[in-house]
Design brief:
Pathway (chains A, B): Cofactor biosynthesis; thiamine diphosphate biosynthesis; thiamine diphosphate from thiamine phosphate: step 1/1
Family (chains A, B): Belongs to the thiamine-monophosphate kinase family.
Largest sheet of chain A: 7 strands, mixed
Helix content of chain A: 25-40%
Organism (chains A, B): Stieleria bergensis
Largest interface: A-B, 69 and 69 residues
Order of helices and strands of chain A: HEEEHEHEEEHEHEHHEHEEE
Number of helices of chain A: 8
Protein name (chains A, B): Thiamine-monophosphate kinase
Radius of gyration of chain A: 20 Å
Structural class of chain A: alpha+beta
CATH architecture of the largest domain in chain A: Alpha-Beta Complex
CATH superfamily of the largest domain in chain A: PurM-like C-terminal domain
Mean pLDDT of chain A: 92
Shape of chain A: globular
Low-confidence stretches of chain A: none
Oligomer: homodimer
Strand order of the largest sheet of chain A: 8-10-7-11-9-12-13
Enzyme class (chains A, B): transferase
Distance between the termini of chain A: 35 Å
Number of strands of chain A: 13
CATH class of the largest domain in chain A: Alpha Beta
Chain lengths: 305, 305
C-alpha cells in the first residue's frame, strides 16, 4: 500500500515554503532558516498511550502531532516540518492510515507544519505513530530546562488535572503562547511542557537547573476536569492537578521583572499564573505554619512499569 | 525504564559539535550549518524487515541506521544527527534496547552521527526501530531523483543481488562515495539508492525524471552473493541482481563528460560502473538483435502485499 498511499498523501498535504522537496524522494529537503534547528520525536501506541476504539483514529492522529508541538512550544520554537512514521495492523491498514492522517493533517494545517516525509509499514501489532518534528527559534535562543535562576518566578499556562476525561486526546499545544512571549522580548530562563504531571515535570526542570521551587500551592490553577474527576475518584481535585499527566501546559521561569512585564501584557493566547519562586535549595517546597515542607512529585512516569 | 535508559545513553553517546543540546531536554538543538537540511526516516520491524533470533539485535540496530544513511547518501548529503525511536517488547525490554543501541552506536560512530534524541516505549508487540536522520549538503544542492537528462550516463556503485544471504543486515551505505563525488566537483543530475531492487529503483528515478534508460545489461555488476544464491534458487544470477532488494548501492546519472571525469578519478571509496544511458522514451530498455526490448522492473515493493 505504501506507494499508492504516498501518492494520496502528496495530493492531500499543503505545499509550504519551508520544504523544498517533500514526499517522493529519498529524503526531504528543508530550506535553511535563521537560528538553530530544534528537533523532537515522540511516539504513541495503541494499548499503551490510547485505547481503540474508545479514542477515534482522527483524535489519535491529532494527538501524535500535538504532543510533539508541545515539546517545541517548551523550547519556544516554531514548528516547521514533520516526518510521520506509522506501523499499521495488517487488517484495514489503508483505512486506518487514512483516518489517522486526517487528524495529523488537521494539526499540521492548524500550526502550519509541512509533512516533509515519513514511512509506513503493515505488521502484526497495534497501531503505532511516531512523529519527528523540526522547528526553529527564529529570533533567539531555545528555552532549555536547565536555565532557571534563583529568584525567578515560576509561571504556569492554563490549568491542571483530569485530562483523562477527554482533554488528553485533543490537547492545545502552547505554541502560540510561546511565540507571543518571544515577541514581547522578555527572557525565559527555563521551560518545560507538562506531559507526565505538573509536579514531575517541574521537578525535572529543577533537577536540570540545580535549583528548587517554593510553591504557592493555593495558586496552582486546578482545571474543572480535576474537580469532575475528584467526584468520581474520591481524591482531592488538587491531587489530580498535582499528579495527573497529559496537561500539555507550559512551566516557565523568568526574572521577577520579566515575569511582571509578561503578566501585565494584554491578550496572551493562554492564561499565565505565577505558582512559585525558584530557590537555591533543591526540591519542591511549600510553606505550612511558617515552616518549609517538602512536597513529593507524583504521577505517571512514562515508560516505567 | 525510560529515564534510567536515557541516563545510560547520555553516557554512551559521543558529543559532536553539530548538536548543542542532545538527550535530556524537550527537544534537541542542532546548530545551523551551510546549505539546506536533508531529512529522512525509515523504520524496521521484527517479523517484517528482519527475523529474530536469526538476525542479531546488534546487526538490526546497525541496519536501522545504515538504511537511513543510504537515503542521505542518495541525496549526496553528509549525515549529522539522528533521532531514534524504539518500540520494545515488554519482556527483556532493557536488554533488547541495550543490544540494539550497541549496533546503532556502531553506525553512528562510524559515520560521525550524533544521537540527538529519541523515544522509548514498551508494548505488546514486536521490536520496531524508527530512525530519523538529519544531514546537510555543505557545498551544493541535494541530488534528486527528478534531475536525469537525456544523454546522461547511468552509473551504479558496487554490485547487485543475493544480499539476503547476509549482506542485507550489514549494508555499507555509500556516504563516503557520495562525499568523494561531491569533492571532485562533477554534477550529479539524479540519484537514488537501491532498496527495493536495481530495476524498481531505477524505474522510480526514470518516472520522477520523465525519462527512460537504455541499459547495457551485460555491464550490470552481479554480486558473488547472487551467483551463490542462483545455485540454491535455480534462477540466473542476473535475475537476482535485477530483482533482489536491499543492495543499498547508488544509481547516479551524469552528463557523459562528468561521468567520464568521475570514472577517471583514482581511489574512489567504491567502484562505479556505467550500466546504461538516459533516453527520452520512458521505461527500461535493452538492445537485442538490433531492436529495443522493454524490460520489466521486478522485485519486492515495500509495503505491498
Amino acid at each position: 500500500m505504501e506507494q499508492s498511499f504516498l501518492a494520496y498523501l502528496r495530493g492531500r498535504t499543503s505545499e509550504l515554503p519551508q520544504v523544498e522537496v517533500g514526499i517522493g524522494d529519498d529524503a526531504a529537503v528543508i530550506l535553511p532558516g535563521p537560528g538553530p534547528l530544534v528537533a523532537c520525536t515522540d511516539q504513541i501506541i495503541a494499548g499503551v498511550d490510547f485505547e481503540l476504539p474508545a479514542a477515534s483514529l482522527h483524535d489519535v492522529g491529532y494527538k501524535s502531532m500535538a504532543i510533539n508541538l508541545s515539546d517545541l512550544a517548551a523550547m519556544g520554537a516554531v514548528a516547521e516540518s514533520a516526518l510521520v512514521t506509522l506501523a499499521l495492523p495488517k487488517e484495514n491498514a489503508t483505512q486506518i492510515a487514512g483516518e489517522v492522517y486526517e487528524g495529523i493533517l488537521e494539526a499540521a494545517d492548524a500550526f502550519q507544519v509541512a509533512i516533509a516525509g515519513g514511512d509506513l509499514t503493515t505488521y502484526d501489532g497495534p497501531l503505532a505513530i511516531s512523529v519527528t518534528l523540526l522547528g526553529r527559534c527564529p529570533d533567539g535562543q531555545p528555552w532549555l530546562r536547565s536555565g532557571a535562576q534563583e529568584g525567578d518566578v515560576v509561571l504556569a499556562s492554563g490549568a491542571f488535572g483530569g485530562s483523562i476525561l477527554g482533554r488528553h486526546l485533543r490537547p492545545v499545544p502552547r505554541n502560540e503562547l510561546a511565540l507571543a512571549i518571544r515577541r514581547l522580548g522578555v527572557t525565559v530562563n527555563a521551560a518545560i511542557d507538562v506531559s507526565d504531571s505538573l509536579s514531575i515535570d517541574l521537578d525535572r526542570l529543577c533537577a536540570r537547573s540545580g535549583v528548587g521551587v517554593d510553591l504557592e500551592v493555593d495558586a496552582i490553577p486546578v482545571h474543572p476536569d480535576a474537580d469532575r474527576l475528584a467526584e468520581q475518584s474520591g481524591r482531592r481535585a488538587f491531587e489530580h492537578a498535582w499528579s495527573d499527566g497529559e496537561d500539555f501546559e507550559l512551566l516557565l521561569t523568568l526574572s521577577a521583572d520579566d515575569a511582571g512585564q509578561l503578566l501585565a501584557a494584554a491578550e496572551l493566547p493562554a492564561p499565565l499564573t505565577p505558582i512559585g519562586k525558584v530557590i537555591g535549595r533543591t526540591g519542591l517546597w511549600m510553606m505550612e505554619d511558617g515552616k518549609h515542607v517538602r512536597l513529593s512529585p507524583q504521577g505517571y512516569i512514562h515508560g516505567d512499569q
